[in-house]
Amino acid sequence: MTATALVNVAELVTWEAEHPIRHHAGVVVEDGRVAWLGDSADTPAADEVIDVAGGTVIPGFVDSHTHLVFAGDRAAEFTARMAGQRYEAGGIQTTVAATRAASEAELARLLAARHRELIAQGTTTVEIKSGYCLDVAGETRSLQLARSLTPETTFLGAHVVPPGWTADAYVELVTGEMLTACAPFARWIDVFCETGAFDVDQARAVLTAGKAAGLTPRIHANQLGHGPGVQLACELGAAAADHCTYLKDADISALAETSVVAGLLPGVEFATRHPYPDARRLLEAGVRVSLATDCNPGTSYTSSMAFCLALAVREMGMTPTEALHAGTRGGAWSPAARGRRSPGAGGASRPGGAGRPSHVHLAYRPGVPLVRRVLTADRWRPAAELPDCPA
Ligand code: NIG
Ligand code: FE
Description:
Helix content: 25-40%
Bound molecules: N-(iminomethyl)-L-glutamic acid, fe (iii) ion
Radius of gyration: 20 Å
């Protein structure tokens, strides 16, 4: 067992209900788990002691929703949207064509570069979805590539219906041959339940088949308009209903009653000009809320959790501390993550600049690279030195 102590932490952000922020703190991490928290002066002996010298230490970001396996670029779509054009689910086909055309080596290279970009900004746990090949070999290959970087992989064969298929025939493929091929490389199953993608019956069929194959359901729901996706997530006991942009009171009560996590992805509203979800309303109703990037080329091409935190604070009614909790503990609140190694145990940041360094700087100084070091399983590393494929 290896124990690492961080001492002289001016501000330590924790997941403890009673002391979410500790000052002059120390923390001991043993084999990737937080083993002790308290005053810096009382820190127990450890194999390695790191003097943080008045910095701020935060849990690592848990980016619980990304689509990192893709090729191609959709900057022209973004430009058109900024000029007033609406986002439509069909744009996904552009990325499907580019991803199908890319070689496995090229896809692996693109994925590794995006992954490096994300961990260099303080993300210590990342979920990665398939969903840009929409055929058996391509979806399997996407998940295998994602699996080489994270155990948190999601089968999203039901992203949209590919050209040349009817929706019903494609759902049969996704729930049959494609699921059988993909399930060994996935922990989760997802479906885009939205006008232009899959209706509620098709989404139910996909998630139910995934559950029967041992995967845990999650869903893209209520992103582009009011829809049945959130209610379906609650009916099936999904881990998360992601997006939650358009909610009715009944959706909020269902989320609060079932503990399904409402996954908020404000990079999407930023890049599509849809209204931001009302996080305050969800928090006040007792709903568990997570924040993630949704990093993808169509609706949210950002790998920055700090940017998403800043949007949540500026546009969604969250305090900086609530936003940081949603971007760390929120993403880890799921049945599969419970009881496992605390995914956020390893991250650390040291906001610089004049004045007292604080986690508030994440939202207050958007765009400034504030994460200086990350505590990985083996050592305290400068963020820039992090490898492509950490264990
Ligand atoms: O999370 N909503 C579905 N999937 C992605 C968008 C994918 C795309 O436009 O390429 C999302 O927003
Ligand atoms: Fe998404």
